[in-house]
Amino acid sequence: MPAKKTGEAKATTKPKATTKPKDGSKPNALQKPLTPSAELAAIVGDGQIARGEVVSKVWDYIKSNNLQNPENKREILADAKLEKVFGKPKATMFEMNKFLAAHLK
Prior knowledge:
By secondary structure, the chain is α+β, with helices and mostly antiparallel strands. 36% of the residues lie in helices and 10% in strands.
């Protein structure tokens, strides 16, 4: 009887999960191209853009302009452009998506 080898990994054949839609299927809500309002376009650019990209570009804008409250990083202190989108001078990161959704069609 052959001796068992230790440390050998067992090969598995599980299929990997993919994030890309299959051919002929609809893109998910984060991938669907949407048109930003004029106020939001001042931050993310004109033209159609996916919701996921909008959130990413808004976060890039927030970080590059140092708009997070240093004492509470979850709070965003809006500048003139962001205040037009948020409708108020401060918002939490959890409220941000609600305000962005109102500016995407």
